[in-house]
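(Deposited chain)
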Amino acid sequence: MPSLLHNVVAKASGRLPGNLAVRLDETPLCTFTFDDCPRSALEIGGGLLEQHGLAGTFFVAGSMLDDSAGKNGKMLGSRDLKALVGRGHELGCHTYSHKSVRVTPIGELRTDLDHNREVLLGASGAESLVSFAYPYGEACWTAKAEIAKRFSAARGVRPGINGRILDLAQLLCVPVYSHEFPAERVQALIQHTVKTRGWLIFGTHEIEDAPPTYGCTEQQFAQVLDMVIASKVEVLSMRSAIGRMMHRA
């Protein structure tokens, strides 16, 4: 069990940049991301994006596939990953165990990441995994350094808009949760993204009529999507956004 001092130091080190980069483009961008693997995220969130010809990024922990987390069939199964990729969405990586990287020894983390990659690629038929999201949004510098070696980009949960200089090892992300959903603030963030030509990343989990703490309703998700589309901000998956930003059009 990590000591209190270890946790404090690890948490503080997570604020250190792990992979600083400068954007080469000047296009306002938005990405919709979904954590873990709830079926409703793909069926509802993915479906709404597809209606507009858009794609999202879905971060999956292999241990939570096939309802192994005991959520009564609410989670995606291994066979769903091939459909996810086939529908044009990006399959992203969590840790296999969904343990926080902040409390995971580096050797164990490497094994866990290798295992998740093997499971996800084998089930989906995808050629590669280029995007990562930290379980619980928790990071430390040693883990960020390892993640930066393996993935083009990693997303945390610290809120904000990613600017011209950004940390690709811990991108900022604005939550879309039913219990904290001020539509006016979301609209202001979108407008600021347009003004600063930034990259706005949204994140959620389940999309249900009565969502848990870290989910939202279909109406709320659709409202955010409609506001983004109305703003003319381009919507891309994390993989596509990184390709756009790191290679001048």
Summary: The beta strands are 20-22, 29-35, 57-60, 90-93, 131-133, 153-155, 165-167, 174-175, 199-204, 234-235.
